[in-house]
Write a structure and sequence with these properties.
13 strands, 20 helices, alpha+beta, six-stranded antiparallel beta sheet, three-stranded antiparallel beta sheet
């Protein structure tokens, strides 16, 4: 346990926190947050190709193909190039647990253990402690890139970016005035929010909100099992759809199936040890019956990702878990290495720290292959009332509203791990920070468009390979 002196150093008093926040303005003036100057040696395609070395070779072209669809899909997969860019910008030194990839599509709704639909950050593959402004800049720039993709004018994208940045700043001041326990319990409950603003919402907006809530509730394990599996000769199997979904029997037909599944069940049991005792007891009521590799997302394509079909011992139902490979965070080379040896534990610990409510089956495990190579994983439910807004369908007003939700959520997540009082003191009450970050977002959107074109050129020249049909 830390000593009293160590605790005071980690959690300074309010006056010291305010002084720390104002001192950060000297190190990194708020206006400097707009600055971005690409290094002469900058090579985003080279960074992406370096990542490909540790990924499944046949899936790397799929990743590049998905990134080529638009500047926004490129942005989603380019967390590493942006981490390198952010490391060269003005730094406050005010550190929090970062999402590490806080773009617009990595926020969404899902079911809490209390069976409420909550809105939160929902991707933590790159989570690591670092300067709070890195997450804010990644979020705001993603809004500009997405807005341009939807045909917004420069004025409209600027207003969207400013709305998110301002909401983050205002929320951080509100959180700074709250007690530590109130901050910890704060969350964005979708159902409560709809009820609270029902009278203010136009009929169309209310109908869309209630429809989105209904769709979120429908996206559960039962729906996933119906979509991804079928019964063949009395046995439920995962539907093969290569290269996106490939049952393990097809990946390694030479393996003895019974022996392989016995080993896999042992791994599931070991993962259960990272869960609280009550969740472990629940997991033990299910038995692994089938396993398949599944391609997910954009940035994650090429990493090992598995879906685990689990059957309840009493035959009353099914559970789908996802075991996803956790590699070294893209931030590690710029913000410092993780304190955790297991990268899956890094992801899980960061998620539990930032999220107001986490999946009940969230845990981690490592596996050693026949060649002795170790792979770290984190595990969660494949779907549990998960819903992501259709970004490409948003108009400027809708995206501004969604950006505000993300800005508030990011502030609340940062306030749980960082010095919220110091961050609020740094941000101040004016819009200097908002304007600077919005300007950065516009500049970085320009860079993203150039980087997207550079990847297309690399594919044309043969430097990189892309597959566009999946």
């Amino acid at each position: 346990m830390p000593s009293t002196a160590e605790k005071r150093a980690m959690h300074p008093g309010r006056e010291q926190s305010i002084a720390d926040g104002k001192a950060a303005r000297v190190r990194a003036p708020r206006a400097s947050q707009r600055d971005f100057e690409p290094a002469a040696s900058r090579d985003p395609v080279g960074l992406l190709l370096a990542q490909a070395v540790s990924r499944i070779p046949e899936l790397v072209p799929v990743r590049h193909g998905r990134m080529l669809l638009s500047p926004f899909t490129f942005y989603r997969g380019a967390a590493l190039p942006m981490a390198a860019d952010l490391a060269a910008t003005s730094a406050t030194g005010l550190r929090v647990q970062l999402c590490g990839d806080a773009h617009l599509s990595n926020f969404g709704a899902f079911g809490s253990p209390e069976r409420r639909v909550v809105f939160d950050v929902n991707d933590f593959d790159e989570t690591l402690p670092g300067p709070f402004e890195w997450d804010v800049k990644r979020l705001v720039a993603s809004l500009v890139v997405a807005g341009r993709g939807n045909g917004f004018t420069s004025g409209q994208t600027s207003r969207v970016a400013l709305a998110a940045a301002a909401t983050y700043r205002v929320a951080m001041h509100e959180l700074a005035a709250m007690s530590t326990m109130d901050v910890w319990y704060a969350r964005l409950d979708v159902e409560d929010a709809i009820t609270q603003f029902k009278a203010q919402l136009k009929r169309g907006a209310l109908r869309r909100s209630e429809s989105a809530l209904a769709r979120a509730r429908a996206r559960d394990s039962t729906q996933a099992v119906a979509k991804l599996t079928r019964v063949i000769s009395g046995r439920r199997e995962i539907i093969s759809d290569p290269p996106l979904i490939v049952p393990v029997e097809e990946l390694a037909p030479e393996l003895n199936v019974n022996t392989s599944y016995a080993a896999l069940r042992a791994l599931v049991s070991q993962y259960g040890r990272t869960l609280p005792p009550d969740r472990r007891h629940l997991l033990e009521r299910f038995t692994l019956t089938r396993l398949a590799r599944k391609v997910v997302g954009v940035g994650s394509v090429g990493t090992q990702s598995w879906i685990l079909l689990m059957e309840a011992d009493d035959g009353s139902g099914w559970l789908l878990l996802q075991a996803k490979q956790a590699q070294r965070s893209v931030l590690a080379g710029y913000a410092g290495e993780s304190q955790y040896d297991n990268q899956g534990e890094r992801v899980v610990s960061g998620q539990r720290l930032m999220q107001a409510s986490s999946d009940i089956f969230l845990g981690w495990q490592e596996a050693t292959g026949p060649d002795g190579t170790r792979t770290d994983y984190y595990v969660r439910q494949l779907r549990d009332w998960k819903y992501s807004a259709p970004i490409e369908e948003m108009d400027p007003a809708t995206m501004a509203t969604y950006g505000r939700l993300c800005g508030w959520t990011l502030a609340r997540a940062h306030a749980r791990s960082g010095d919220r009082i110091a961050i609020a003191a740094y941000l101040g009450y004016s819009d200097k920070f908002d304007q600077a970050v919005a300007d950065f977002g516009a500049t970085y959107a320009d860079q993203t468009e150039r980087d997207h074109a550079a990847l297309a050129e690399a594919v044309t020249s043969g430097r990189a390979q892309a597959r566009m049909d999946v």
